[in-house]
């Protein structure tokens, strides 16, 4: 996935919007998003789950000329990763790293709560990339290697709350948001991690996230 190109596009869009003489609101924001992959069944009756990770990204929001408080949004998150935790009974999976990133495109509606506070409702499509890489150890010996990756598109909904401040001619803002997706993939078979298929990998995809963000109005 060309996540970096998406982030550069978002930044470029913000610059162009800022050069246009208009009353419309435009925003550029950087965010730190916390996720945790879903647990995976690695043996009969045995589950493992990667830890929490934080990834960073940017998002541009531009207000529609025909609809006040409605925004189009484009952005993306760079890679974030965490490792599986199982290390017992002679089996060590802690070398296996789960990595995720995405680009996003969507719309949002911001409800003004007073002059400087906004409550936002957002719907977006995320082009997600998920990968699992690392070695399986048993008795201190490598018994298999995991190298799987997949990309897919899922809808996500976000709720945000932010406050704007005035610093001279600048109008920065900070906020917090939570997000979730209604779509999930279920693991349907138990296979060796070294033979991991797309369905098994996608079953580990995160389903909720939380983020802090900061940005500027243009």
Supply the key terms.
eight-stranded antiparallel beta barrel; two-stranded antiparallel sheet; 218 residues; mainly beta; single chain
Through-space gap between termini:
29 Å
Number of helices: 2
SSE-based structural type: mainly beta
Q: Give the low-confidence spans.
A: 14-21
What is the tally of beta strands? 12
Secondary structure: elements and pairs:
Elements: H1 3-18, E1 26-35, E2 40-43, E3 46-48, E4 53-63, E5 70-83, E6 87-88, E7 91-92, E8 97-112, E9 117-138, E10 141-164, E11 172-180, H2 198-202, E12 208-217
Antiparallel strand pairs: 1-4, 1-12, 2-3, 4-5, 5-8, 6-7, 7-9, 8-9, 9-10, 10-11, 11-12
How would you describe the overall organization of this protein?
The chain has helices at residues 3-18, 198-202; strands at residues 26-35, 40-43, 46-48, 53-63, 70-83, 87-88, 91-92, 97-112, 117-138, 141-164, 172-180, 208-217. It starts with a helix and ends with a strand. Mean pLDDT is 92; it is low at 14-21. The protein is elongated, with a radius of gyration of 20 Å. It has two helices and twelve strands; from the N terminus they run H-E-E-E-E-E-E-E-E-E-E-E-H-E. 31% of the residues are buried. A hairpin with a 6-residue loop joins strand 4 and strand 5 (70-83). The protein is mostly beta strands and 218 residues long. The protein has an eight-stranded antiparallel β-barrel with strand order 1-4-5-8-9-10-11-12. A two-stranded antiparallel sheet has the order 2-3. The longest helix is centred in the N-terminal third of the chain and has 16 residues, at 3-18.
